[in-house]
Amino acid sequence: MAAQFDKTLIGEALVGEGPEIAHIDLVIGAKGSPVEAAFVNSIAMPRQGHTPLLAVVTPNLPAKPSTLMINKVTIKNASQAILMFGPAQNAVALAVMDSVAEGIIPKAEAENLLLIVSVFIEWDAKDKEKVRTFNYEATKLAIKRAMRSEPSADEVLAKKCTAKHPFCE
User: Fold this and answer.
1) Host domain of residue 101
2) 20 to 30 A Cα–Cα from 96, which one of 62, 79, 87, 138?
3) What is the pTM of this model?
4) pLDDT tens per residue across span 33-45
């Protein structure tokens, strides 16, 4: 196993706008690591309104590395659940698989790694294609950032006083 995976990698990305905006937080770690313990505990103990699910390209075709999705916002109705268990699920799986295809995640490590992806689906989101597109782009960007340990501490320090948080304006 590559030395890079001796530690937990962390990534984040915000993509899109409106109620379909995607905010992804994720961790990548090796089987046998604390990431595996969190992965197994999460899938084994769902809570009302927060049902962990595997990212799948389509049913019976899960992403590799195995990827667990966890919703950040409590699912309150069927239309919100369909966005999570459809467009977002497919988007996350495709972003993982494209990351493997492009070598961002080494193909040789696909069976050794696990991803946990926290997905934001706003209660007012309705547009399936925007949910799919924004979550794909955010997941792909978060994976790249995790694999490259970006942003660096120096970059955050340099931008911390001028950065604007979109939900604070």
Assistant:
1) 3-159
2) 79
3) 0.93
4) 999 999 999 999 8
